[in-house]
Amino acid sequence: MKPEKVLTIGIDIDGTVTSPSSIVPLMNESFGRDLRYEDCYEYNLANVYNITDEEFDKWLDQNGERLYKEAPVHGNADDILRAWHPHFKLVYISAREDRHRDVTINWFSRYDIPFHELDLIGSHDKLSAAKKWGVDLFLEDRLENALQLSEALQIPVFLFDTPYNQGDLPSLVHRVTTWDEVQEKIQLLSMERTSV
């Protein structure tokens, strides 16, 4: 009998494992605004804050370390990821740059969040990394990524519901609001795989 393949879960970090609202207070502080997380109706915060992409890139370059260090955990992601670690392969694929590896690993360590692989690709195009690691499903908060990954790889993507990722979803993209909901859906998926 063939050994059962371990489920490989691709996981975005910012807005998925970290709270999606964590960037807003820092940007308000820097740009003298008083926006709420609910006001962030699109992923490109340069548009939301009425600044140029270059200004946002410069801001992130200067504040990324602080943002990644101070971000709170998204709900009970830490508990669920600890429970998954012995059973699934956890591969974090993030648009963070590799120069933020230390602050990222320290943050994971502080919250006791386990991982098997940590791929900081410095780009929002996660397709080649997802292929490289052979992910079976993906957890994401950016709508464009969810659509691209589900279509190109024909895998389920769980999209965490945010003000900036609204829109119609294809059948492989599942909108979720909590980590508990993801846990339930992945348990069902695992049972389906083992019963095949």
TrEMBL record:
Organism: Brevibacillus choshinensis
Family designation: Belongs to the 5'(3')-deoxyribonucleotidase family.
Gene3D superfamilies to which the protein is assigned, alphabetical: HAD superfamily/HAD-like (3.40.50.1000)
Keyword Hydrolase annotated: yes
Record's keyword terms, sorted: Hydrolase
Enzyme Commission number: 3.1.3.-
Domain of life: Bacteria
Keyword Hydrolase among UniProt keywords: yes
A Pfam family it matches: NT5C
Name of the molecule in the record: Nucleotidase
